[in-house]
Structures are given as C-alpha cells and as structure tokens.
UniProtKB/TrEMBL annotation:
InterPro entries: CLC_0170-like. It comes from Paenibacillus lutrae. This is Uncharacterized protein. The chain crosses the membrane at residues 6-23, 43-61. Keywords: Membrane, Transmembrane, Transmembrane helix.
Length: 66
C-alpha cells in the first residue's frame, strides 16, 4: 500500500473544514443570524474529523504496521 500522498489528503480535509467553519461564522456575524446548526457547520466538522482520521491512519500504517 502506497501512503505517499495520504497526508496531503488529510491536510486538504482539515483546511477545507476549518475554512468552511470560518466562512459560516463570518456569514452569521454579517447577517445577524442566530448561531444555529446549519449544514455548513456539520459539513465543516465532518471534514475536520475525516482529516484527523486520515492523519491517524497514515501515521499508524506508516510507523507501526510497515
């Protein structure tokens, strides 16, 4: 199993999730909406979680199983 680019995928998910949460926070500040659980917030947290799981998988496979 080739793991060379897996950490780039994890970084993409982490940065995309963080960016999505920051953009949603800014939109709520500008529009004056109450902070509610929107699909963008759930998607942002899901992307951050996916990125962390990919990083965990990458390091486990790279340092312990190979």
């Amino acid at each position: 199993m080739y793991l060379g680019y897996l950490h780039y995928l994890a970084s993409f998910f982490l940065l995309a999730g963080l960016g999505l949460l920051l953009v949603e926070k800014r939109i709520c500040e500008i529009s004056g909406w109450d902070k509610e659980k929107t699909w963008a917030m759930w998607l942002g947290w899901f992307e951050i979680l996916a990125g962390l799981l990919i990083f965990l998988m990458y390091f486990l496979f790279r340092h312990y199983f190979w």
